[in-house]
Amino acid sequence: MVMTRLRVCAVPRRGYTLIELLLAVGVLAMLAGVIVPNALRMYADSRLSEVAEQVRAQLAGSRSRAIEHGLVYQFRFEPDGRHYVAIPFEREFEGSDPTSTGTGGTTGLGTFTRFAGELPTGFRFIDVSGSGSSAAGGQQLPEETFGELPNAGDLAGVSWSPPILFTADGASVDAALEIADRRNQAIRLEVRGLTGATTVSRILPAAETSP
Is the pTM above the cut of 0.85? Predict the structure, then answer.
């Protein structure tokens, strides 16, 4: 009986050719060209929404302070800039009168809650009120308006928008503003006068934002 010995030969593994490597790199580059811009856009949109929500919260806080303290509060922002404040409005026109009641005048300046903040770098306010206020033509407020805020001196040099007022019953005035990013895309915040509530729009493309 003849036994046949089988011989197993290892098949050598073929490497990738230069053309195959170039094709793989090209496919990866195409995928990156689609995925990376979309990821960056989604991040920028998310960041813009986050900043707008922070400002909405401060508008709501101004309304809450007006109800809590029983006096008119104002929210102001810096058109084409980054600063914003939530401070009492009536104090701006009243002196400290130890005999007065109801408006906070009995306890002097700096007593009621004040808040000042800034938008992150790359974001700015746009005034859409139609008042024509701008960084060059806005209203400056005296330093004592800002009470004991640590940067009161700097805030006194800012040109502010007209005030968005919140009264002690929670009502406000109809008002609107936008927050824009470096892409010139923006989100609009609108305050309803009857309720004092603030609504936030979708992200507006550059063509839809106010100049």
Answer: no
CATH architecture of the domain 55-208 equals 3-Layer(bab) Sandwich (3.55)
Query: What is d(CA 51, CA 126) in angstroms, rounded to the nearest whole number?
Result: 14
Among the residues of the chain, which ranges form H helices?
18-69, 152-156
Confidence of residue 30 (pLDDT cuts 50, 70, 90): confident
**Residues whose CB falls within 8 Å of the CB of residue 61, separated by 6 or more in sequence, listed in order:** 86, 115
Each residue's pLDDT tens digit, 158-187? 999 999 999 999 999 999 999 999 999 999
What ranges make up the beta strands (E) of the chain?
73-77, 83-88, 115-118, 124-127, 164-166, 175-180, 186-191, 198-204
Cβ proximity of 101 and 110 under 8 Å? no
- Rounded to whole angstroms, the Cα distance separating 121 from 184 reads 14
